[in-house]
Specification:
Structural class: alpha/beta
Strand content: 15-25%
Helix content: 25-40%
Number of strands: 22
Number of helices: 22
Oligomer: single chain
Distance between the termini: 65 Å
Length: 663
């Protein structure tokens, strides 16, 4: 049984300006020109979406460093061999640049061959004093193993190390690549060029330590800049379809065979999997239609669509037998007629290039925001065959009788939270400013299609630290908020806006940026809550009796004249109310009650960080009310503070007992 969400939870329209795909006199697209302007930076971090041209941006910078900046060698490291093709020989001179990108085949270490031989070759490349040994392409793994074989970091002096898909790096001590990068940064004169389409890791470890990240100049090119500057794409949507039972019984209703589609089946270890991935592929074939045959040379199936009778070309990347033939076909296809549907499990995500793809149908929950970003990136390339791109997540609706209801709903929350984050990433940016006077300007568009919005009572920014977070780290901060377990539980329990905005969100800010003062935390909190609420708001226009046009915003269930925007009003709205609305509309009431009961039972369990954050709130309550907070209050926030006070007393008693024993 399949239940459809009536409208996309995210629907964004674009202006088709063509600016992101047009090229300048050097043959550079908009994003590439922005990166090239920073070519003299020794350490450069580029955050830009798939299809924006990061690979070629690297080529321009690397060639300039080789020609003009004293760099002798360039190493480009990619996460897997298949992505190496993005850095193959490329003609640049005929489009206006002064040199082509040429890689000596012996140093393209992503071509077939033994892994250890490639490690030897990279070590040789680094040590070889030969002008012809200029550029090497290798995998992250090859770079890691080669680094372990090198005796001295000075081997990387005057070498440019470029790391593609930089979110694979981690500052964690157990990350070999992360430690290698740290040592290269600290102990050599190497130049480092890092690029990624997703700066979100699936775990909690940061990519770089704050000290190391501060060394990098940054170029950020937003998803909105990229998509708004396309020639063909008009809109993008994110949708959910909920099923009960097996997803294989519902997939035919979720799969639109008229669209060029990538289907990602669930991980074999997930609850949605049947544990028979080959059987799942067969069942999806049956949902499409009847198999006519398979091309022996390419491995591509021809299936007759049971609805339209069309002959569809379908690729199976799940089955290992014959996969290399299929991959080779996918690498060389160049027409929209070459493929209709692709079925994959762990492949066809990062770095996979099929510009004609219109829809990504993903079955099951995706635990990593990085994975969601990468999947969406497969269908947001500009192509003349499509005006709309779609990401559809087919997810299981938990059964009220199922003992794992809480877990299942938590998984749904992860999926929906990822969509809310993607809306932030894909929509035009909002720039907030304090409204000091009634005659302050009306909201206006900025040069990048974003908006300048004035808010009464909004805090003034008092430090460069806060300004840097708001300008360069907002998407990452929102990712941290939406991945926080307490926030997700708060969404599922439909907590009051005050608790979400004044307790749960600032706790994440304080944890992520421990060096901020209380005032700085509050500044970041206000701008974060306001931006999320306004990003999700719907706009409306009304004309009053005097004929004056007024702009209104609908936030949750409130209509607000945009001239009357006030931080206190914004704080009265839970910015994640939409996530709860999706759950409550698509999960039956018995299940919803069960999950809320489970969350309520754990409502007043605090970790140490939360208690540290709540302690000044308790003191403030006592000062303002002349009494301690009460557990019997009708005010949910007061009750939370009362239980936190009890937990603090217990913690203090335990520490006192431990100190007594120590004495």
């Amino acid at each position: 049984m399949l239940k459809n969400v009536s409208d996309n939870i995210v629907e964004i329209n674009y202006h088709q300006t063509g600016t992101s795909t047009n090229t300048n006199e050097l043959g550079m697209r908009e994003m590439q020109a922005k990166v090239y302007a920073k070519r003299n930076s020794q350490y450069l971090l580029v955050k830009a979406p798939p299809a924006s041209g990061k690979s070629r941006a690297l080529m321009f910078v690397a060639l300039d460093k080789l020609a003009n900046q004293g760099v002798k060698k360039v190493i480009v490291a990619v996460p897997e061999r298949s992505i190496g093709k993005s850095f193959k020989n490329t003609e640049l001179a005929k489009y206006g640049f002064y040199e082509d990108w040429v890689v000596d085949p012996q140093y393209d270490l992503t071509l077939p061959g033994g892994d250890m031989g490639k490690v030897d070759k990279l070590v040789e490349f680094l040590k070889k004093d030969d002008p012809s040994a200029r550029i090497a392409i290798c995998t992250h793994a090859t770079l890691r193993f080669a680094y372990e074989r090198i005796e001295n970091d000075h081997v990387f002096d005057d070498v440019m190390v470029a790391i593609d898909e930089f979110h694979h790096v981690s500052a964690d001590d157990s990350s070999v690549l992360g430690q290698a990068l740290k040592n290269i940064l600290r102990n050599s004169t190497a130049h480092v060029f890092a690029m990624t389409g997703s700066y979100f890791r699936g775990d909690s470890a940061p990519i770089l330590t704050p000290d190391d990240e501060a060394m990098f100049d940054k170029v950020t090119y937003t998803y909105y800049e990229q998509l708004d500057g396309y020639r063909y794409l008009k809109s993008f949507g994110i949708d959910y379809k909920f099923y009960q039972g097996s997803y294989l019984e519902a997939i035919d209703k979720a799969l639109d065979t008229t669209k060029k589609t990538i289907v990602h089946i669930p991980n074999v270890n997930s609850g949605e999997s049947t544990k028979d991935k080959y059987g799942e592929v067969d069942a999806i074939f049956d949902a499409i239609g009847s198999v006519v045959g398979q091309d022996e040379n390419t491995g591509i199936y021809t299936i007759k669509d049971k609805e339209t009778g069309r002959l569809l070309k379908v690729a199976d990347l799940v089955t290992e037998d014959g996969r290399e033939k299929v991959q080779e076909y996918l690498r060389t296809m160049n027409s929209a007629d070459d493929l209709d549907i692709l079925i994959a499990l762990g492949m066809a995500k990062e770095g996979f290039d099929w510009p004609f793809a219109e829809q990504a149908l993903t079955i099951g929950y995706r635990h990593s925001l990085t994975e969601v970003v990468q999947i969406i990136g497969r269908v947001t390339r500009d192509s003349s065959n499509k005006s709309h791109s779609q990401f559809t997540n087919l997810i299981e609706q938990p059964d009220a009788k199922n003992e794992d209801v809480e877990y299942a709903v938590n998984q749904i929350l992860k999926a929906i939270s990822a969509s809310l984050l993607m809306e932030q990433v894909l929509a035009p940016q909002i720039h907030l400013k304090p409204r000091k006077h009634e005659h302050d300007p009306q909201p206006s568009d900025d040069d990048n299609g974003g908006a300048n919005i004035y808010v009464k009572g909004l805090a003034e920014i008092t430090s460069d630290k806060v300004r840097n977070i708001l300008e360069n780290d907002m998407n990452d901060l929102q990712a941290a908020i939406l991945q926080d377990s307490a926030v997700k539980k708060g969404i599922a329990a439909d907590v009051a806006a005050e608790e979400m905005n004044k307790i749960l969100i600032p706790k994440v800010i304080m944890t992520r940026y421990p060096d901020l003062t209380d005032d700085e935390v509050e500044q970041v909190r206000q701008y974060t809550v306001a931006q999320i609420n306004l990003q999700h708001a719907e706009t409306d226009i009304a004309v009053d009796e005097q004929g004056k046009t007024n702009d209104f915003l609908k936030m949750a269930d409130k209509f607000v004249n945009i001239d009357d925007l006030d931080i206190n009003l914004i704080d009265s709205i839970n910015p994640f109310q939409r996530a709860y609305d999706v759950i409550s509309q698509n999960i039956n009431s018995d299940v919803l009650r069960k999950i809320q009961s489970a969350i309520d039972a754990n409502k007043y369990k605090f970790d140490d960080q939360e208690l540290i954050f709540l302690y000044p709130k308790i003191k403030q309550f006592v000062v303002e009310n002349g009494r301690k907070p009460s557990k019997d209050s009708h005010d949910e926030m007061e009750v939370k503070l009362a239980y936190a006070l009890s937990a603090l007393k217990v913690l203090r008693a335990k520490k006192g007992a431990q100190n007594g024993q120590a004495d």
